Amino acid sequence: MGSVDNAGGYSAPPVQVTFDGLLFDMDGTIIDSTEAVEKHWHTIGDEIGADPKVILQTSHGRRTIDMLKILAPEKATWEYVQYMESLLPLNHGHEANEILGARSLISSLVSAAFSSWAIVTSGTLPLVTGWFKVLSLPYPPSEDLVITAESVENGKPAPDGYLLARRRLGLEAEGKKVLVLEDSPAGIRAGKAAGCLVLGLVTSHSLEQVRAAEPDWVVRDLGGVRLVKADGKGVTLEIRDAWVGETE
Predict the structure, then answer these.
(1) pLDDT per residue over 169-203, tens digit each?
(2) Per the CB 3.0–4.6 Å rule, which of 111, 131, 190, 245 could disulfide with 156?
(3) 242, 8 Cβ separation under 8 angstroms
(4) How far apart are CA 157 and CA 155, in angstroms?
(5) d(Cα 20, Cα 171) in Å, to the nearest integer?
(6) pLDDT band at 247, cuts 50/70/90?
(7) Which residues are catalytically annotated?
(8) In 3D, which of 203, 192, 197, 189 has the Cα closest to residue 217?
(9) Class of the 15-32+97-239 domain?
């Protein structure tokens, strides 16, 4: 994953914030599948006659089917997308890693029996279930709290996925405080458009790109985020070492 190329800045004092629900992106937020995805897209690019470099420059945070509508319209079917994405964890699962702090945070939610959290991803259901199985990660409380590419009409940066997750959690009311955890500018913008607060991770994009999408906090990864408490009133997180100051 990309690294920050600006000096300093991750020095904000710890803050504790209570939310009604948490919405996690997957790739770049929970898992790092960069190497696996690059190899996969080189194979698929050759198959569909598209330049893998072009695909990789524009695909992160966006649905494969939306990319194929532009690059190879004849392949832009759910049947093909689900098939090709199901191969990624099977063929390249050993090349994926967890984002620092992701397992700990999700496991703490499960241990606290906090159920108001969901996954909202641009990947298809076969891709999500494949990665969670390969990495043995805790799954959301119910199947309908896994919002995938097939779940919505419009992918990120449209807010559809996050709005659907809020609705399924019963948190669609304007006064509900929902946190989106995202790494891509497209996903950050989707979360903001859905009326959520957003924690931006600098894992797949540069600090400048993440900040330009205007998340509420910016952190390197989830290593500085921990559960303080979870109960019927919500979940309180502590956010440490967030970015402060300018990049110059």
Answers:
(1) 999 999 999 999 999 999 999 999 999 999 999 99
(2) 190
(3) no
(4) 6
(5) 7
(6) very low
(7) 25, 27
(8) 197
(9) alpha beta
**Single-letter amino acid, residue 42:** H
CB atoms inside a 10 Å sphere around CB 171: 21
Q: pLDDT (tens digit, 9 = 90+) per residue, 43-96?
A: 888 888 888 787 777 666 678 898 889 888 999 999 999 999 999 999 988 999
How far apart are the C-alpha atoms of 244 and 248, rounded to whole Å? 12
Backbone angles phi, psi at 152, to 5 degrees: -130, 160
Element (H, E) at 64: helix 64-71
- Provide the residue ranges of all domains of the chain, joining segments of one domain with +: 15-32+97-239, 34-95
- At 60 the pLDDT is 65
CB 187 within 8 A of CB 169: no
What is the pLDDT at residue 3?
Answer: 42
Structure tokens at 173: 């009311």
Q: Look-up: residue for tokens 């509420």?
A: 216
Instruction: List b or e across 58-72, with b for residues whose CB sees 16 or more CB atoms inside 10 angstroms.
Output: ebbbbbbbbbbeebb
Parallel/antiparallel/unpaired status of strands 21-24 and 117-120:
parallel
Strand order in the sheet with 178-182: 146-147, 117-120, 21-24, 178-182, 197-201, 217-219
**CA atoms of 79 and 29, how far apart (whole Å):** 26
Which superfamily, per CATH, for 34-95?
Putative phosphatase; domain 2 (1.10.150.240)
Cα–chain-centroid distance for residue 232? 25
Tokens (6 digits) for 165: 């997750």
